[in-house]
Automatic annotation (TrEMBL):
GO molecular function terms attached to this record: DNA-binding transcription factor activity; transcription cis-regulatory region binding
Signal peptide: none
Organism: Nonomuraea diastatica
PANTHER family: HTH-TYPE TRANSCRIPTIONAL REGULATOR BETI, HTH-TYPE TRANSCRIPTIONAL REGULATOR RUTR
Keywords in alphabetical order: DNA-binding, Transcription, Transcription regulation
The keyword Manganese is annotated on this UniProt entry: no
Entry protein name: TetR family transcriptional regulator
Ranges of the DNA-binding region feature: 34-53
Occurrences of domain HTH tetR-type (ranges): 11-71
Length: 211
């Protein structure tokens, strides 16, 4: 069943509030913006904002559920004969080619990083998101591969892969923050991604290979 009118209006209101909040955060910094300011700019009440977002950090991290769930989708959608490592290699190379936000390769990722770095609350929130994402991927790997409770492999694989993708994101964003253009970053980023996953292949290459 498709999205109903009520659900669509609620989604659109949520997205509008989050977009307006992000504009304010970009202009003034996260710590210098109050929820009341967001409510005024969005022409809604403070209570309405809190109906959609439990905290101010939620306004900034409005895509957290998508970020946490994405690695799980990568392994669930891997192709026949494709291992977990191969699936993530394919996914991150696609994100580089399309400049997709899921790994922070999008236009404006450097602005996002500046806002986060200037706010201890957001630094802590992103650390929490990374932990949640790793936990979600660990559970998904354990469930899909029927790993026992004492099997450390799902957690080790999740940690290695997500650390690799996070470092590649950091590599890209750091060069953007230094003022480089994407056109000069992309070929080096792609080469670094290939080298990084080449390092993972010998140890993890067959893990979770889909028959």
């Amino acid at each position: 069943m498709g999205e109903g009118l009520r659900e669509r209006k609620k989604r659109e209101t949520r997205e509008r509030i989050a977009d307006i909040a992000m504009g304010l955060f970009m202009a003034k910094g996260f710590d210098n913006v109050t929820v009341a300011e967001v409510a005024r700019a969005a022409d809604v009440s403070v209570n309405t904002v809190f109906n959609y977002f439990s905290t101010k950090e939620d306004l900034f991290a409005d895509r957290q559920d998508l970020v946490v769930d994405h690695p799980v989708q990568v392994i669930r959608e891997r192709e026949p004969g494709e291992s977990v490592v191969r699936a993530f290699r394919r996914d991150i190379l696609d994100a580089i080619g399309t400049r997709h936000w899921r790994y922070g390769f999008n236009l404006g990722a450097d602005v996002f990083a500046r806002i986060v770095d200037a706010s201890p609350a957001l630094v802590a929130r992103l650390r929490e998101m990374h932990e949640l994402r790793e936990q979600a991927l660990t559970r998904a790997l354990a469930d899909e591969l029927d790993a026992g409770p004492d099997d450390l492999r799902p957690r080790l694989v999740a940690a290695h892969i997500l650390t690799t993708t996070r470092l590649l994101t950091h590599y890209s964003v750091s060069r953007r923050l230094a003022g480089e253009e994407w056109e000069s970053i992309e070929p080096d980023l792609r080469a670094e991604a290939e080298k990084a996953f080449d390092l993972l292949e010998p140890g993890l290459g067959d893990y979770g290979r889909r028959r």
